[in-house]
Amino acid sequence: MRTISLHNAVQQAGAVEVLPVDLVEFNSKGRLLIIATAEQINSMLPKLIGLTMHCICTDDGELIEPSLKLTDELVNITGWLGEFSVELSTLELVVDLVLDLSATSVVQSKVLPLGYFAPGDDEQALVEALEQLPDLIGTFDKPRYFDYKSSICAHSSRGVKGCQQCLDACPADAISSNNEFVLVNPSLCQGCGSCVTVCPSGAMSYALPTLDVSINRLRVMMQTYLGLASTAPHILIHDLEKGQLLLDAMPEALAADVILFSIEEIGALGMPFWLNALAYGAAGVTVWDAGSHSDHDWLELQQEITKTNQMLAGLEYPAQLVNWFAGSDINQLAQSISVTNSAPKLEPASYAGLDDKRRMIKLAMTHLHQQTKSAVAVLDLESNAAFGEIQIDTSACTLCMSCVSVCPAGAVLDGVDKPQLNFIEDLCVQCGLCEQACPENAIELNARFLFDSEAVRKPRRLHEEAIFHCIGCDKGFATQKMIDTMMDKLKGHAMFQGDALQRLKMCEDCRVKAMFKDSQGPM
Question: How do beta strands 138-143 and 418-423 pair?
Answer without folding.
Answer: unpaired
